[in-house]
Amino acid sequence: MNPVLVSRREWFSLAAAAGWEAKASAAPPAPEPRNTRSYNENMEYRRLGRTNLMISAVSMGGHWKKIPFKPGTEEFHKNRRDVVYACLDHGINYIDACTPSEVVVYSQAVRERREEIYFGFESTGARNPEIAGSLEKMKQGLDEALKKCRMDYVDLWRVTMREQTTRNSLQEIENVVAAMDWARQSGRARFTGISTHHRPWIADAVVRYPQIQVVITPYASGSREKPVGSMFDALRKTDTGFIGIKPFASGALFASRGTPESATRQEDDDRARLALRNVLRCDLLAAAIPGLITVEQVKNAAAAVKERRQLDRTEEEKNRQITAEMWRNLPPGYEWLRDWQWV
Fold this sequence. Notes:
Elements: H1 8-18, E1 45-47, E2 54-56, E3 60-61, H2 74-89, E4 94-97, H3 100-110, E5 118-121, H4 129-132, H5 135-149, E6 154-160, H6 170-185, E7 189-195, H7 199-208, E8 214-218, H8 232-238, E9 241-245, H9 265-279, E10 287-288, H10 295-306, H11 313-328
């Protein structure tokens, strides 16, 4: 059985049943940013919904596409440590890992500075019906991940759901949310959330399941909030944290398509800063999480936060041109991202 999308009337009934206010209300005041992990006066920190965590407006995604070192080599691990440490030194305090290999690699990279960062990861593979179909296997997956990471807890356990052509069944979803309850109650996860690319389901799920405290989903440089019927309506009403992936559309934004140290590096750095300034104009977005390959890219991303949000006419025109080019040049397998021009 697949979950059914709800009508507007049912949406408000669900909201009341789940304990949400049926009308939009202001979120509680944000905590003092200086009390967050790895605080840096040159970084902006935003409240991650009702988790009340203050995370850096630009944080770090776990993918290492285009990295010039073979995974598993000493050069590779040194690169990941150097990049993570540069993030911490610049006030970037959240890292997100979404594959088993990323979880292990970044747990090793942050081990000496664990309490300086908020760590989020996926561990169980709810895209796999065999795992999502079993509450015990969901629990086992988290326990195994924590053991491999040599960690007692994860700050955000964010389960990746199926989307696009297939959907998780209602039973699988119920197993996921039951596992989330168990993870928080047992102290294995401080907070819980999901990652998915299916907007209508997100809008329903955050109302049906208060266990979903954070949503991780695309928000690219060319994305905009729909004036009517936006997924953001549900996120605001439920005070659900929102982290945006794919700000650079898997490298399609860049002249080099994301290759570090290319001949177009200066142009790519300019485009990256412009894109980050653009996505950070979204008031609901707690953080954009690009994949950062080099220490220089970390510095460039941190520099973008210090620049003004408002774009002048020249910048607006450049942004229009490069995002149009970005949508045209999506790599194979990422054509679906065009559906995220309006969120």
